[in-house]
Amino acid sequence: xxxxxxxEGATAGLAAVLVGTVAWGSTAIFVKEIGLAALPLTCYxxxxxxxxxxxxxxxxxxxxxxxxxxxSVLPGLFLAADIALFFSALKLTSVAVATxxxxxxxxxxxxxxxxxxxxxxxxxxxxxxxxxxxxxxxxAVGPGVPHGEHLTGDALAxxxxxxxxxxxxxxxxxxxASTDSDHYTFGVMLVAAVAMTPVALLCGEPLGPVxxxxxxxxxxxxxxxxxxxxxxxFAHRFVDVSVSSVVSAGNPIVASLLAxxxxxxxxxxxxxxxxxxxxxxxxxxxxQAADRSPARQPERAVAEDEPIDNRxxxxxxxx
Length: 319
Fold this sequence. Notes:
By secondary structure, the protein is mostly helical. It has one domain (21-292). The chain has 14 helices and two strands. The protein has helices spanning 9-25, 27-33, 38-59, 66-71, 73-92, 95-102, 105-117, 123-141, 150-174, 181-202, 212-235, 241-247, 251-263, 269-291, and strands spanning 2-3, 302-303. The chain has a two-stranded antiparallel ribbon. Helix 6 (95-102) runs antiparallel to helix 8 (123-141) and helix 12 (241-247) runs antiparallel to helix 14 (269-291). The radius of gyration is 19 Å and the shape is globular. The two termini are 26 Å apart. Residues 1-6 and 294-319 have low confidence and may be disordered.
């Protein structure tokens, strides 16, 4: 048996990562606009995601299957923790600080990507990663580092960072040639929603009533950032986890700009300069990913007993 590479997927994968980054960048705006407490909000958001993805699967005549659900248990628990902690952080600290802490994820991913996935992480990717993180940090903390009550929010954001890194790596491991992104994302959302329901019921915060304005923002929260999960889970098949995580670090740039326009959170000169640096660094990483993608390498067949380089492939044995 011989395995065929799918070089055409490299461009689609990078496009999915870029669009998914913009979608995820809008999360903080919706959370800030919703008056519900963080844990009830998390529960509603997850169940809305389950309903929307379930409708999508039924419309495509692809009902959920048990195998996909079983593979979704661990990443679903990670996702529930990530969303709950991140929403809680946003209720206590600024959009910029909460999102820049999450942007440190590439540093964690780079530590383990090579060992877990066999991905070759070159020194240029490492350098551009550090540059992008520095630029994003300038965007987030240009006006000054938060103190006092914001510290709890910052600590929750760190917890969200760790949980999301676990979700990211587990997803990369789980998603293989036999696991499509829509079934997987539905399973993850369902597990996360089931796990969060007792937490929301026991947290002591009211679950309702939900105003019409909150209902509108909740629906957008499920539709827009929620689409990012489908896009990134699709991209895991074609894009190195070390690269896609760096591109997704543009999330704070999107979030800070939206916070400026929608919430009136100002950006100073340091933040603007940091944003430009971060965008250029992220673009450099994406370009290097394209340069070393299978589409730009001579095609060849791989024998069944030959190790398969998992760059751009979903056949990795991790996340």
